[in-house]
Amino acid sequence: MKQFYAMVYARTMEFVRDRGTFFWNLLFPVFLVLGFAFAFSGSGNALFKVGTFGAPAQAALDSAPTAAAAPSSFLGIEQAQFIPYDGRSPDSSLEAALDKLRRHELDMVVDFQSQSYWLNALGKNASLLHRLLVADPGMAGFKEATVTGKPIRYVDWVVPGVIAMNIMMSCLFGVGFVIVRYRKNGVLKRLKATPVSALGFVSAQALSRFMIVMLTSIVVFAGTNAFLHFRMAGSWGTLLLVASLGIVSMLALGLVFAARLKSEELVNGLLNLATFPMLALSGVFFSLEGSPKLLRVLAEPLPLTQVLRAARKVMLEGAGLVQIGPELLYLGAFSAVALVISALLFKWE
User: Fold this and answer.
1) Using omega within 30 degrees of 0 as the cis cutoff, is the peptide bond preceding 65 cis?
2) How far apart are CA 104 and CA 292, in angstroms?
3) Can you give the pTM of this predicted structure?
4) What is the DSSP letter of 73?
5) Residue 76 carries which DSSP code?
6) Tell me, what's the pLDDT at 25?
């Protein structure tokens, strides 16, 4: 244990004494969150986001953007984006769509089975949509209902993405790149001659990075929350658990890249190859809801997708451990598999 604590302390102090890297990891996400809060502090775009439930929803999507096959002229306007909910899973149920309407993530929900539609009484587009639907012959006979709910700002939605992005970059490059540099510089070759085991060395590196990333993430979140007051509907403990599993999964992935490689240029390229798809497809800065199905299928196995989904469920929807159980199980299994692969592939030289 003395060897283990010595390695953890050495790696932690190496990071802290590198002032440039330390302040970059600490200040960059703060500036990013504040920048998004300022840039998107306006009223947003004027497009309607409509959740549709029932058979005509598919007709609207198949004939987008004109939706000529839909029975209502409202479904054919180009200013509306239609998102289908088929009821095949809890996330695609009518109640899930209404919850999004309460949080102002949707402007309207239409149920063609019960001939009903819902508006958010506090929504910025509620009055305009009401007038459009009342004057639309295609919506004659539909019953109108309203829901209420506090709106979610873009900064409330994007802050988990910014924090998770910082976690991903810090873990992948902080472990993967550093261990490859040690191997290239002969540090690992010297450690091999000591009583230090490969498992002890890798565990020390991972624990040191875990503490650093967790501490910086907490400081960034608390610091920006003091000014922006993020929406927090769930438990802080549950959110901390999500962050912990997210860090572990990214550390495990970084160790896979660092297990055998010796070239810093090669590992840098491979790490970028791993991070860019997650940045583009995991919903860091924008939602993939309503995007092509292929993109959503490709994004599903990415660990960052699971981290963000779980974090947003906790912060925005007040989800507990049961609701985010699938995401937590996936992250745990992903971490275990990645750690086994990295242990099998690891070499000192």
Assistant:
1) yes
2) 22
3) 0.69
4) G
5) G
6) 62
Is it the case that residue 67 has pLDDT exceeding 60?
Answer: no
Burial class, 60, CB count within 10 angstroms (exposed 0-12 / middle 13-18 / buried 19+): buried
202 and 66 co-located in one domain: no
Is the same domain home to 324 and 211?
A: yes
**pLDDT tens by residue, 156-170:** 888 888 888 888 888
* Residue ending a domain, choose from 119, 147, 175: 147
Alpha-carbon span 310 to 315, nearest angstrom: 9
Range of the domain at 59: 48-147
Q: How many domains does the chain have?
A: 2
Tell me, yes or no, whether 276 lies in a domain.
yes
The verdict on 88 and 216 lying in the same domain is no
CA distance 77 to 74: 6
HSE, side-chain direction, 13 A CA sphere, residue 77: 15
Q: Distance between alpha carbon 261 and the CA centroid of its chain, in Å?
A: 29
> Tens digits of per-residue pLDDT, 232-266?
888 999 999 999 999 999 999 988 888 877 777 77
Do both 102 and 20 map to the same domain? no
| HEC secondary structure over 224-275 | HHHHHCCCCCCCHHHHHHHHHHHHHHHHHHHHHHHCCCCCHHHHHHHHHHHH
